[in-house]
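Entry 14. Ran structure prediction on the chain below.
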Amino acid sequence: MELHSDRRILRLGDGVDQAKKLSVTAMDRVIACLRQWRTVIESYRVEASTAVATSAVRDAGNRAEFLDRVKREAGFEVEIITGEEEARRTLLGIRSGLPDGITDVLALDIGGGSTEVILDRPGQNPVVRSFDIGVVRLCERLLHHDPPTEEEVRHVRDWVVRETKSAVAGMDNCQAATFVGTAGTITSLAAMAQKLPSYQPARIHNYTLRLDSIRELEQMLLSRKKTDRVGLPGLERGREEVIASGAIIIRTVMETLGRFECLVSDLGLREGALIELAARISEL
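Output, structure tokens:
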């Protein structure tokens, strides 16, 4: 039973792709949020807690400084997980909320600095591929204009096509698996496709997001400046800059794989991290 839930868009990875380190401003934002969450956690007297860091912290040269600050100032021991471990825990979260009857899964998790593709079949070890394409990384590396130019978009598509083909190479018969997407880009597009006035997990989870809807949303987003995306139905505040790059990624991945539908999961790494924590506690 869920007692409390909160989510924030804090952009810890801003500038990491170029500077190779976390900015003081970004670290301050995250630590301020974690201190608030520490107060909430303590009010529930929880038995255990967990915190994980992904691509932005993995790639940052000053990650030790950040982890030390988080421990001292917010009281969290943070575990830096690899792209493969991120994918494994994300899969745990996805699997916990799939509709009945789904067995084979091809999952896509689009993050800020990396994207994971996971093929999972019952009775077999998951096949995991992680590549360094994410919504923040694309914005900083290739999408320099607002809105992006056609040439910039073309370069992004070419890059995503190459990485997608490489990711699924060796994933035998992955076309037979149900295509499932998770994380902020995909859940936001699902909310936008339905023109939801606010983020409504029950309407987003297990929603079928069609490729033609993604194409329409992508075109609309690419035709607008960041400031003109503010307030679009279904778009969480804070995603105005990165949602267009996310739309390019999901559209290009689906076209490359020949997929016309994506089952949306509102469950992912956060839930998977909690499932992993529960399993560790039960073994004690």
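The radius of gyration is 18 Å. Will compare against last week's run tomorrow.
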